[in-house]
Design goal:
Elements (H helix, E strand, L loop, with lengths): L6 H21 L6 H26 L25 H10 L26 H12 L19 H9 L3 H5 L7 H18 L8 E3 L6 H16 L21 H11 E5 L2 H21 L19 E4 L10 H7 L1 H4 L41
Parallel strand pairs: 1-2, 2-3
Bound molecules: S-adenosylmethionine (SAM).
The site of S-adenosylmethionine (SAM) has 20 residues, from helix 8 and strand 2.
Length: 372
């Protein structure tokens, strides 16, 4: 059983998040027109969604615990008598952006609605009190499928409390058992056929928040560390064996280098980057070679999943100039390619660590080979 499939767990959670979205929206100054109502709902949903991502991160101790503590006692945040919950929440959310791969979650070009307005302190405190009190833990046990550290739930929540524009891109993600079935029928035969290859390369050209990427990472981790793979859903189907077993420390960069994603919606892609980064850190911890607790600010800073933000229907088919005419916003988006020059590797957690000896994190040029 996996709580992401259990409506008695997910429905009340989504209902409560909708209720808080309405409360936050009502607290944002505006008019009573339909357009303004939509604007305030969009802003409120951005705040509520990121609070859910923060709660998930706090529940897994990836960041310091502030929201689950009702935003109380953040050192140096408040001056006496001038507690500003909305400022405290924004600062606590900032903890999600300390890794180079996760710096985009609050970036105005990725999460525009978050910057379009602020809910009231009262509404934010009510949200924080709910996270500190009645809200369920987002770190849960599973007996099948992806563990809670995979961020499956926060991936699904984006589509549950998302805005209309994202719905227009058809963000409806694949259940884990369907993703596994597809990987059973594609990745396993590929691993068997290309067992002597150093990398089994995969791509999800419409990656969403990374459901397929996460499951592919899980399969590839098994393949590289054990040299074999058995189907998880298509039981009785073909297996793969005879791969070269490598130690987990060397397997991890290969897993990251084997999985590519492209996603047209910047915030959706930013969530995929967060999830894949954390999941890679989690794999290192389960293998026992990474020491200390798993935290966002200690995951190696060169461990960056390759999730580009782009229209995958046009990549490789049009020039950069043509692309910019169709998608001016995407063409100008910082960090759209994988670790291009516009990636800030000097995010607040400190200076980047030196690159690992295995150079797999090559720069991804979204317009590779197409003349300007
Ligand atoms: C149905 S979801 C699939 C998500 C993921 N592949 C999964 O299996 O869970 C489709 C995703 O494709 C994205 N998308 C739609 N058109 C796209 C395009 N032309 N290029 C890149 N991504 C696109 C949407 O924003 C959405 O997140």
């Amino acid at each position: 059983m996996n709580p992401v499939d259990d409506a008695t767990f997910t429905k009340p959670l989504v209902r409560a998040l909708h209720r808080h979205t309405d409360l936050l929206a009502d607290s944002i100054p505006g008019t009573n027109t339909h357009d303004d109502h939509q604007r305030r709902q969009r802003i409120a949903a951005a705040w509520v969604y990121l609070s859910a991502v923060l709660a998930w991160a706090e529940d897994h101790r990836l960041v310091d615990v502030w929201l689950r503590d009702g935003l109380k006692g953040m050192p140096g945040r408040f001056t006496a008598g001038h507690a500003r919950p909305v400022v405290a929440l924004a600062q606590a959310m900032g903890g999600l952006t300390v890794h180079p791969a996760t710096q985009w979650l609050m970036h105005p070009a990725y999460n525009q609605a978050l910057h379009e307005g602020s809910p009231s302190d009262g509404a934010v405190q009510a949200l924080a009190d709910w996270w500190a009190g009645d809200a369920p833990s987002l770190a849960y046990e599973t007996t099948a499928g992806p563990p809670s550290i995979s961020g499956w739930l926060i991936g699904d929540l984006l589509q549950s409390i998302t805005d209309e524009r994202r719905k227009g891109f058809a963000l409806a993600q694949t259940p884990w058992w369907v993703a596994d079935f597809i990987l059973d029928r594609t990745l396993i035969p590929a691993a068997d056929e290309f067992r002597r290859e150093r990398l089994i390369r995969t791509i999800d050209p419409t990656a969403g928040t990374g459901h397929m990427l996460i499951r592919a990472m899980d399969y590839l981790w098994e393949w590289y560390t054990t040299g074999s793979l058995r189907p998880r859903q298509a039981v009785g189907g073909p297996a793969a064996s005879g791969g070269t077993r490598i130690d987990p420390q060397h397997a991890l960069p290969r897993v990251v280098a084997s999985v590519d994603g492209v996603e047209i919606d910047p915030l959706t892609a930013a969530v995929a980057r967060l999830r894949c980064t954390v999941y890679a850190g989690h794999l290192a911890h389960t293998a026992g070679y990474a020491t200390g607790p798993l935290r966002l600010d200690t995951i190696p800073r060169d461990l960056i999943p390759r999730v580009g933000v782009a229209d995958s229907l046009l990549l490789g088919k049009v020039t950069k100039g043509e692309y910019a005419r169709v998608h001016p916003h995407l063409a100008a988006l910082p960090g759209a390619s994988f670790t291009g020059g516009d990636w800030n590797h000097d995010t607040p957690a400190g200076r980047p660590e030196p690159a690992p000896p295995v150079v797999l994190n090559r720069q991804l040029d979204l317009f590779d080979g197409i003349a300007a």
